[in-house]
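User: quick one
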Amino acid sequence: MDYYVTLVQLLDSTIRLSVPLLFACLAGLYSERAGIFDIGLEGKMLAGAFAAGTAAYLTGSAMVGLLAAVLVSVLLGLVHGFASITHRGNQIVSGVAINFIAAGTTVILGQAWFRQGGRTPSLPAGARFGALHLPGAEALRDVPVAGYLYSELISGHSILVYLAFLMVPFTWWVLQRTRFGLRLRAVGENPAAVDTAGISVTWLRYRAVICCGILCGLAGAYLAQAQGAGFVKDMTAGKGYIALAALIFAKWRPVPAMLACLLFGFLDALAIRMQGHPLPLIGEVPVQFMQALPYVLTVILLAGFIGKAIPPRAGGVPYVKER
Amino acid sequence: MSQPFAKLPAWADYGLIPLVNLVVAFLVAGLVVLLVGENPIQAAGLMVKGAFGSGEGIGYTLYYATNFIFTGLCVAVAFHCGLFNIGGEGQAYLGGLGVSLACLAFGDFLPWWLTFPLAILGAALAGALWALIPAWLQARRGSHIVITTIMFNFIAASLMVYLLVGVLKPLASQAPETRVFGEGGQLPQLGWLLQMFGLQVRSAPLNVSFLLALASAFVVWVLIWRTRIGYEIRTMGFSPRAADYAGISQTRIIVITMMISGALAGMMALNPVMGAQHRMQLDFVSGAGFVGIAVALMGRSHPVGIVLAAILFGMLYQGGAEIAFDMPNISRDMIVIIQGLVILFAGALEHMFRPAIQRLFGRLSGSDLRATPIATGESH
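Assistant: Done. Structure below.
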């Protein structure tokens, strides 16, 4: 029973840790399926988290925080769009720029406004997205195995967690079953064909970038308002890049994206749990090794030792209308 | 878009456009300064004064510039091959390991001018090896070099924390750093150079590696524009297919370019580790690898431009530290914003002002230049 409890708790923190990855990963999916590489997921998430922390603290409303996060993140997304769609700039360079702008601005503004070393004041319960208790969670807790699983693992997360996992089938449906999704995929593979059909490549790609911004904003709001209680300097800590790696690993498809994010979340949860617990045979694993593991794994995955990932064909290439 | 544009004279292409981009970046940064309730013009004045107002300020400015010359060259060499090496941060960190091992092993009994070449070798080798794996993966396995080098930054950070906390730290010490190097592991200061101009450098850690940085800039210029391998690198960057037809091995060029790039990043470690602190401290790179991206973009990947851009960023770095005394709302993180804005305007949006400037030149210089239409949009 002890091992079972440990396992369920491990999976529970896996879910919590994979949610920001999942939001960011799906965000990247919309953008990259439309042919816009986005390395700026990290920056948008960070700026979103800062906006969420600030707005939620000032207004005391969780919803306002969320909207602020989405707004700021979409604005940064539009900057990326302006550079890479309108001005056909290098998408990677633009994304890197956004990451730096977000990293610097959040610290400077946070310090100037709140004077707490770059963090925002901690949020009261009303300004956060607290845990939702699903019906019957308390009553079923004592039912062996399944009841505990239900009350620990399935119930008791914030609404954003459920939203993140609902976004997976929703994204699949949008991409595979709607006109917008078909066009979005087409513009990432062969924008000239979309253009020939009389559909604006520019507008489509802008819409994809906006979708990306919304989801990154949700990821940021989750970090500042659900996982944490306020913004902390550099709180994304490379999650945007991990999400990007998960996206590639998932070959730009929603359901595998969720699985990849859960895998990286699990590694993270495992790393936290293993701190100070020696393993049989190996002895104590250095914390740094566990911290580096997701990145090492990403490199191995990307090297194509586990299946080859083929990006959208027009990805990273600015579209030039024929003259 | 096939409007007839005048071909810009070189000074406009390499001087005016970067300048316009820079000015816009600073204007936007000024808005952020306004947003935190300070006066941007006053801030700029304080910054210039902090960076160039005293011998010590100049010493520090050039000390920081040394870091950025190395990392700027690192990014630029990769740019010439069409590769984006974001891994300068990690490569420089590993370079510190090379420097430290050389200094710990030989610093106690060899004079500095014998340890120095060994440390250079160690730094370059460590940086190059750290860049080798992403390069090989890009060339042979097709994994995107941007992502792999970012991952290698994180891996380098973990590895170095592990080494500094566990392996390299002297037993008696608490701080995660190596012991102080012996006499031979410490580079001579360059204070006398500034004193010749009557400036007092006081504690500024400007050292011999500044001269090495300038020499490296020259070597990179020779390498890129005056050697066979440089020609191959540029061909590859200009058109991988043309390089392929010319019988240039992609794998070979990518691996060589990235190793040179990594070696340059690694050599950056000489300046803070061997030149200033005389020991390796945790996180001594502190973002210099990323500043290199902005420096390379602003310097348009040319060594002369990079040296100038590096001095500018050195000024921002030193001046930024000085501002913090008078304007507590502004810290060094302001540099990160400026860096991001420079990357945005000089990199991703580099073509934003070009058409307007070209039109202006076309109008000024009459019809003879307009006869040759230049198509925009194909340069990238």
